[in-house]
Amino acid sequence: MTRVVVTVMPKAGVLDPQGQTVEGALGRLGFGGVSDVRVGKRIELEVGGDDPLAAVHEMCERLLVNALIEDYDVRAES
Amino acid sequence: MTRVVVTVMPKAGVLDPQGQTVEGALGRLGFGGVSDVRVGKRIELEVGGDDPLAAVHEMCERLLVNALIEDYDVRAES
Amino acid sequence: MSGATKPKHRALGLTDREAERITALLDREPTDPELVMFSLMWSEHCSYKHSRRLLGRFPSEGPGVLQGPGENAGVVEIEPGRALALKIESHNHPSAVEPFEGAATGVGGIVRDILAMGARPIALLDSLRFGELRSARSRHLFVRSVAGIGHYGNCIGVPTVGGEVAFDDRYEDSCLVNAMCVGVVEPGRVLRAAASGADNAVVLIGNRTGADGIGGASILASAELDEDEDRRPSVQVSDPFTERKLMDCCLELASSDLLVALQDLGAAGLTSASSEMAAKGGVGIDIDLDAVPLRQALTPAEILVSESQERMLAVVEPRLLDEVIRVCRRWELDATRIGVVTDDGDLVARSGGEVVARIRATSLTDEAPAYRVALHAPSPSEPLDLADVPEPTDLATAWRELLGRPNVASKRWVFEQYDHLVGANTIVRPGGDAAVVRLPGSNRAIALTTDCAERHAELDARGGGAASVLEAARNIAAVGARPLAATDCLNFANPEKGSTGWRLREVIEGMSQALEALGIPIVSGNVSLYNESPARAIYPTPVVGMVGVIEDAAARVGHGFVDSGDVVLIAGGGRPRLDASEWLGEARGCPDRPDAASEARLCELLARAGERRLVQSAHDVSGGGVAVALAECAIAGRLGADVELPVERRADEALFGEGGGRVVVTCRPRNLDALRDAAGGVPLTEIGTVGGDLLRVRIGSDMAELSVADATNAYEAGIPEVVA
Amino acid sequence: MSVAVLRFPGSLDHESAQRAVESVGGIATSVWHADAELPAGVGAVVVPGGFSYGDHLRPGAVASRAPIMGAVRRHVDRGGLVLGICNGFQVLCEAGLLPGALRPNATLTFVCRQASVEVADDGSPWTAPLGVGARLSIPIKNNQGAWFGHPEIDRVALRYVGDDRLGSVTAAAGVLDESGRVLGLMPHPEEACDPLLGSTDGQSLFGVAAAA
Ligand SMILES: Nc1ncnc2c1ncn2[C@@H]1O[C@H](COP(=O)(O)OP(=O)(O)O)[C@@H](O)[C@H]1O
Ligand SMILES: [Mg+2]
Fold this sequence. Notes:
The complex is a heterotetramer, with two copies of chain A (about 80 residues), one copy of chain C (about 725 residues) and one copy of chain D (about 210 residues). Chain A has a single domain, classed as Phosphoribosylformylglycinamidine synthase subunit PurS (Mth169, Chain: A, 2-Layer Sandwich). Chain A has two helices and three strands. In chain A, strands 2-1-3 form a three-stranded antiparallel sheet. Chain C has about 725 residues and is α+β, with helices and mostly antiparallel strands. Chain C has 24 helices and 26 strands. The longest helix of chain C is centred in the first third of the chain and has 21 residues. Chain C is globular, with a radius of gyration of 26 Å. Chain D has one domain: Class I glutamine amidotransferase (GATase) domain (Rossmann fold). In chain D, the strands form two sheets. Chain D has a nine-stranded mixed sheet with strand order 2-1-3-4-11-10-9-6-7, sandwiched between helices. In chain D, helix 2 links the parallel strand 3 and strand 4. Classes of the chains: A alpha+beta (about 80), C alpha+beta (about 725), D alpha/beta (about 210). Chains in contact: A-B, A-C, A-D, B-D, C-D. Chains A and B meet through strand 1, helix 1, strand 2 and helix 2 of A and strand 1, helix 1, strand 2 and helix 2 of B. Adenosine-5'-diphosphate (ADP) binds next to strand 4, strand 5 and helix 16 of chain C.
């Protein structure tokens, strides 16, 4: 079994309302100089088989990621 | 400016319905041998100042993370 | 054809004739941004070039109408000092591409239309069509559209109180997602989109502008930039939190009299909003594109047509500008002066100090071409031969099966994902006929519904158009309300092909006749054409959104049975037929043309009976016939009934036949005579008694019996079973 | 004394809550999130439902850091009462004024329906008039209503009756702070204060607020 980590982020240029809110809130809390906040997902999963990374790539295409608005990255946990 | 990445995951023992649902859905799609799926967040932000990592740690304590239910990790983007 | 060899105007979807017309209007060749602006403003979506001539047929005037079609929404007075703004709109194509965001942004768009009238949104409805749920794609579209609508409506705090959803293979390639919004406004404070006053400021409020939904502009850009991947239009992501702030902020600005005019940014973005504001006011607008706050680098053409959501354009007197910006800041919203009103009638856009577009505003709006659609009557449908419809071996089994079919089954799975209560005014919740929302500070309440008889319209366009209006009216009347006004969304296939144009005209004629019989206007609407693929064209789907008024909110009528011993009646006439029915399950046969005049009398009877508190419950007979209507009354009231139906040619026809304007009504025995007296000429047929935990229906020597518990299980399981 | 009803960007139920206060004869005052103080003469604070800050990051997280929350904390320290409803409950948990946290519903969907809840702890000003075992019919409407906490030490005030438990630990629908003066609940009592809405079971809580 391999522990695989998928990170899913809003595509560049796609609106990220959550990132906007977090950026505004950090500013109001007095944290200066913060910009370009993006909020995405991190999915961790335990996968068996010969080629766990290839399997997870397929899971991303078929379920985990909405390719129209999200980019993703798959790697084995370090 | 440093691009900093915060990962926030549900604490062990806290119910993760999203992880469970993803696990179930992957099973129904025919992906066998997947287990222990956890879904968390990834927050990316651009931070200035002398010690951006320390600043982000403070942001986590004060806003980004709810320590009762979440664990987190901060690192500079690689 | 590659972008390099295809003329630019064709790449943007303009015909050669249209391109010539543009050159003639400008008296020179258009610049690239100008060509993009024309291509979008002259699209079917913005210009209604194939439907405009036909829409004039709708009755749109009446004593209470403060604003008919032509503005962002229609407005009709409901009581002294209070008016309703209403409008329905489609977001079909974006929902097919990305159902969650497409449906969500559809809700956002219709809410901003209501807001642009200065009205406070108080209710949402949705009308949905998908392919059959056995198709994985249709299931996905259905599940995600519902989630998207819920996400948006719930987060902005406008209750989604009703709607409809149906499944048919004809929508497999072209799903329909229509959303309706109703708002309240003081008649004296209705805002309009007409800009006025040279030197007044043009202010953009809300989200920053990004590459969202840019179609044509990016085609152009990519032709020049060698197919840059990043130039693909990006899906509009919904931001209901910003929308809620926009609502609160714009209503505050409107009630403080800080605005000259207000307009939402929808299709064709800034181009459409500014040209319409200028054209309506007979003025010009001069925009500095460099002032527009951006989310990412964009070309001037892209800024002009970006469809980024959650933005409004306001015209503000210079002396009030600081105050407007202060209010927006308080709501944590960007507000930027991006231009001024001028008196020359031109829409001007500048970038880097240069004029990149100068177009007479009316050229974009009023001078758009209008086409006559081809009118070919389709061949008339074949009458249904009952002998071809297998007779069910067991009526009760058939009844239970019908109750579980997705088109008939409870839509609870849908409406429980919608906050239908927020605001604490929903006094009849979804699940019956119309929803009822009371007006705070008034004794009155309003009833709301969306309906459509698309299978009927496929077989007989005029009859189906009328049936769509009349079903909506019956749903309004069933809760004890009087129809007040309607809005409509005409979802059709390609108007340039086959019989679509003829059907469009006929549907409009049928709807208009029914509206005239009811004495109510259409005050707003929307047209969505080209809903077809090479394999399938949708049915003509004229969705009708209707509002009605109940004088005394407490007198509203529910659909569930109330007390044992109450008398069950069918009010209204028409014969039950299986043509185009749910039991038949397809558009086949020749449904009877509705009798609008007698249905109008039925509606008046129901409203009067509600007012005088003569009825305990009322429920419209629609999909699945009397059998389904009775079951729904029993399920909601947790009470059975013993009923005898008039004999038809066959028992299944008596039970499951549809058509006519019929309503299942119950009343206390002591009110029966008063109800008969009130009926005038409306047929009232006593069919049985409420009571027990069984539903028993006799038709001559045939009998069907179902326990209320079995009926409930079948009805509630229908949709969860297939989407789980 | 009046009842302060807070308002954040994205609050939705502040007006319904004010009407509920008025339905029991109380006086309601709207208070803006950016203010640093509550108005004088406030006996109870209501943190109403909605989607403050769009539920972004975590429901209630951003609102719980607003300036007005410092004043709410001082109000509690002085012995004042606080009622958090739905998003208001989430705000109070995030502010540390109530124990636990609210997680996504087990269904992962928004759920809007009439629910039945039962009083589990009547040793607080909020629940004393009702008594243990009293049942209330009140709508629930949320998508992150599953309470996570430690019921062995935390005070559970209300529990769901039947299957509508959303995934809450021990079916908790509402919890109290140690003192009992702060109550948070996921159901919406402000939408059950009028016979036309089908239930008046929410009025008891607003009666307590109005009398504080
Ligand atoms: N998509 C939907 N959204 C919200 N409510 C819905 C939806 N579909 C159906 N409903 C509700 O379910 C009930 C029954 O709908 P429907 O079967 O279409 O009624 P009818 O046949 O009388 O028009 C109505 O209260 C309606 O508002
Ligand atoms: Mg109906």
